[in-house]
């Protein structure tokens, strides 16, 4: 297989782009580095395309390796033919290679292998040829052998049929067409194990859907219901049609053999093919569903990580709880914890006035301007206390509900213990909730990506695949934003291209021992950070106020000479970057192509350098929607049909989006209520963190369900 050609076709890119990307990956370059600093070579392939290319490259190389193993194994058996070799080499999936290898794979004891041991293979060949003029009982008489365990002709014929059944089941072409037929015309049929049992799977207690139409989220829900012993699941195939097609292909019009061949085919299908194809199909639709869910999870995670930081604010983090009290932590604009306290405004203590006084004192003492409230247990009750306090005090304070998913995971982690050795888990959690508002990216990288809670069925996934995909998402986000080399934590640094966890620890240790970094070049003094790692990471690490102004931009050190020459040619120096007086740099350049040639760099690199010099230290997150600051609270019972509210998208799933409208219970906007045009997926319209207008359709207080629509009717 020409892997480069295949990658180019699959990803709809040019062959030279695929070739360059593969070469760069093979040389050990990271995806963020290739995407940002090797645009000329790859034709500006973005990180998402590069990750897909890398994933497919690994699969296709694995496929080629598997083909080689199979060819060698069959050749060693002396059974390789030119036709078979051609089929194996042209196979495009691992499943297709497995199908072709199936007849030659060493088998455990089966009914067919036992029949062969009894010497019945020649009888099976007579039956298979279907040319005999004798009855099969007469043919079988010659194979009766008490010593070998064949007592009579009937047993001999049964053994011959077993051999034929296994042979039919092993035929790759038949398996392929049966699999395709079942996928096109079969159905997924789900029943309840106990119809009276109450569960979240009740909608699947009597469920049937064509395999070609079943959606990913349903597959994952059904799988979980089956695992939890509420559901039974089976693939219903067009059995009669498949068996008839096999009969038509294999059975000849010979009265001596026809009925026996039909029996062998029926046995092959029912006993060997159908169960195997069912497993294949269940596995295929599950894998497809998981890939879809991982993609959605990744896109949600990107949006969450790329939320704009709330800079220059002193934030009060509020981790709500009932019995153990609400943990509070005041965090200054640099992320330093100034104070922590526990208040008890919620049940059973209900010390509301005392809590209000404590919080007001903290607001005055530390000049708190915003309260960051976790959306967990007792959030509703805490919110009530906060809004009452905001009305009563003269200070201008707002509050924001933040998604606290993973905060408890972080607060109990080794990292949190190292960061806050003197705090308990509640205090750490409150500090984390405050910092999530100040810089979501820097705080959320401390948590295992799948614990951040913006996916669906993450515990049912292939965990290795999920982890790889989400780590890739975090890596892309961190490198897109860049990090301050002198303040970044170990977790944040370890997501930078080319930096391992061990090297990240070495960077922080070097910083603690020698003070702040003054230039990017100093990184080469860090143990285990050699020239190769420096090449990958340098462009993503910033040094505000350092000796070299370019060190606070995403211009790579390999382009410093070109950037300095560009500035000099236009009458500037690198010091001009600090003053921010280069905002009109692009308008001064008349011939970009000629200038790029003169500087010895590519046009794309020149374009990136100019963009960076115009806005040094630009944070791509600043273009994202800002969090909704609230000063008052609604309760679910306050909601009326037709109300229009502003909400924040908290999670996007296959069938809709959950939106926080400030009543603690997120409302659901079903995919059908997002837009008047047809869409395949909610991500075409909304993303996590989006601020949107929604209208209340219905409220169910008992089930705590809120139905929302984005198709607002102002006449309601």
How would you sum up this structure, described in words?
By secondary structure, the protein is α/β, with parallel strands linked by helices. The chain has 5 domains: 1-82, RuvA domain 2-like (Arc Repressor Mutant, subunit A, Orthogonal Bundle); 109-290, Tex N-terminal region-like, CATH 1.10.3500; 313-437, YqgF/RNase H-like domain (Nucleotidyltransferase, domain 5, 2-Layer Sandwich), CATH 3.30.420; 499-612, Tex RuvX-like domain-like (DNA polymerase, domain 1, Orthogonal Bundle); 634-707, OB fold (Dihydrolipoamide Acetyltransferase, E2P) (Beta Barrel). It has 29 helices and 15 strands. The strands form 4 sheets. A 5-stranded mixed β-sheet has the order 6-5-4-7-8, sandwiched between helices. Strands 11-12-13-15-14 form a 5-stranded mixed β-barrel. A hairpin with a 2-residue loop joins strand 11 and strand 12 (656-660). The protein is globular. The two termini are 61 Å apart. 38% of the residues are buried. The model has no long low-confidence stretch (mean pLDDT 93).
